[in-house]
Each structure stands twice: as structure tokens, then as C-alpha cells.
Write a structure and sequence with these properties.
single chain, alpha+beta, FAD/NAD(P)-binding domain, 4-stranded mixed sheet, two-stranded antiparallel ribbon, 5 helices, 12 strands, binds flavin-adenine dinucleotide
């Protein structure tokens, strides 16, 4: 038996400028610390203490863990106390596949204007970039997959919070795993669950101030090339 893929309506499109315009818009007004690789997450009833590689710590009421499944599998983030058995089983039992991209840069366009291309020739002065997501410590894989013979609820189990730890990212999406929209929607869900938890804890709405106004929809000018 196989899971049926859920497809969104509409055609495929190429984000001409990549996802940066989306990320920049979503990040507006947020205090984002890049290059702060988390090494430890300590959970207590009334808070979470996160330690990063240089030893600095951050304390909050709750935390959303959105690191890739490969990073969770590697054990490079120590959870204290340990994550419960059902959560660890979900991390172990979901698979992580590897797919990479190779970008080739040529001095001039020498190929015909077609979507699929098979050309073999020897070109000098070629520049190239190769992703290595399988060995990159920030990803340790490309995206999740169901492993044969394992339970069907692994994505859901990966998403379910553990007290004040919430989980997001493509591998927690039941309907759209392995996709940007899956990662995005689980982020929204985890944010809302986290907000409800903090509200329930403090019981006062004005203690919780969302960074982005809830009334104003976020709009991002995008350049999308239809395929
Ligand atoms: C080749 C390829 C093609 C794809 N094509 C498509 C496509 O056409 N359409 C589509 O919808 N999806 C596509 N995907 C899938 C999509 O890119 C992913 O599913 C999506 O980006 C996952 O988002 P995420 O937020 O879960 O994880 P990520 O985008 O990987 O974000 C996780 C973040 O956690 C950070 N991190 C890692 N470790 C730590 C740590 N210890 N402490 C702090 N931060 C840490 C990482 O630096 C990263 O910023 C493709 C993927 C690949 C590999």
C-alpha cells in the first residue's frame, strides 16, 4: 500500500529570484540570529533554555524546533530531558533522502530554447556549484520519505509538541512532506500552537505580542516563471 501524494492546484513555476524575497518579507521585524547553531535544548515546565555552539544561551517560554530531520537524526542537538520514546521513534523511522543540485555557468547560451535538454560536449571555462546536502551539517539530507513497513503516522508524531517544544518543517507535514509549502504550513501551525500554549499559561492576551500584525496579510512581490 502506498500513500497518495496530495497535489496543490495550479501549474509549476520557477522562483526567478529564489526564495529570498519571501524570507525577507516574513523576517521583517523579527530578531533573527544567523550562524547560531543549536547544540542543546533544555526543557523545564516553565521555560526552555537553548544553547548554541559558542556557549551562549537563550531562554524562552517555549521553542519551535524546525531543524531538518537529518539534523534531528544525527543527535547533534542534545535534548534534556531526552525526547520521549514515541518522538525518538518517529525521528528514527522516517527516512531522509539525498538529492543535490548542480549549477553550471557558461559564457553564452549555446543550447536551444527547450525545457528538457540532453547535450553532451566538452566545454572549457565552465564554472559550477554543487550542493552537498547529505554532508552539510546544517541539513544532513535533502528531504524526508516514508520507509517501507513503518507506521503511517510518523509525520504527525514528528509534529506533535512535547510540552513547550513545538516542531515544524517539511518532515512534520502530513499532507505535503518534502515541500516548501509543507514546511511553511507546519511553521504557521506550530506558531499558533505555541501562541495558544503561552496564552493558556499566562492567561492574558496582551502579554503575547505577535511580531507581525495579524490583520495585515503579508504580500510579497514575486517573479515567477511558469513552466
Ligand atoms: C533538489 C531539491 C529540489 C526541491 N524542489 C522543490 C520544489 O520544487 N518545490 C518544493 O515545494 N520543495 C522542493 N524541495 C523541498 C524543499 O526545499 C524542502 O522541503 C524545504 O526547503 C524544507 O524546509 P524546512 O524549513 O523544513 O527545512 P530547511 O529549509 O532545511 O530549514 C532548516 C533550517 O535549520 C537550520 N539548522 C540546521 N541545524 C541547525 C541547528 N543545529 N541550529 C540552528 N539551526 C539549524 C538550517 O541552517 C536551515 O536554515 C526540494 C528539495 C531539494 C533538495
Amino acid at each position: 500500500m502506498s500513500d497518495k501524494e496530495v497535489l496543490l492546484p495550479g501549474g509549476h513555476g520557477l522562483m526567478v529570484r529564489g526564495y529570498l524575497p519571501v524570507i525577507n518579507t516574513l523576517a521583517k521585524g523579527l530578531d533573527i540570529r544567523l550562524a547560531h547553531r543549536v547544540t542543546r535544548v533544555a526543557r523545564r515546565y516553565n521555560g526552555v533554555k537553548v544553547t548554541v555552539e559558542d556557549g551562549s544561551t537563550f531562554v524562552a517560554d517555549a521553542a519551535i524546533i524546525a531543524v531538518p530531520l537529518g539534523v534531528l537524526k544525527s543527535g547533534s542537538i542534545e535534548f534534556e530531558p531526552k525526547l520521549p520514546e514515541w518522538k525518538r521513534a518517529a525521528i528514527d523511522d522516517l527516512g531522509v533522502g539525498i538529492e543535490n543540485k548542480i549549477v553550471l555557468h557558461f559564457d553564452k547560451v549555446f543550447w536551444p530554447n527547450v525545457e528538457f535538454l540532453g547535450v553532451f560536449c566538452w566545454i572549457d571555462q565552465i564554472q559550477y556549484l554543487v550542493s552537498r546536502w547529505g554532508s552539510d551539517v546544517n541539513s544532513l539530507g535533502s528531504y524526508s520519505y516514508d520507509t517501507v513497513g513503518k507506521p503511517h503516522d510518523l509525520y504527525e508524531r514528528l509534529r506533535v509538541p512535547v510540552d513547550n517544544l513545538f516542531f515544524a518543517g517539511e518532515a512534520t507535514s502530513v499532507d505535503y512532506p518534502g515541500s516548501v509549502h509543507g514546511a511553511f504550513s507546519t511553521g504557521l501551525m506550530a506558531g499558533e500552537d505555541c501562541r495558544m500554549r503561552v496564552l493558556a499559561h499566562y492567561g492574558e492576551l496582551d502579554l503575547f505580542q505577535p511580531v507581525m500584525g495579524e490583520e495585515s496579510p503579508v504580500s510579497v512581490p514575486l517573479l515567477i516563471s511558469r513552466m
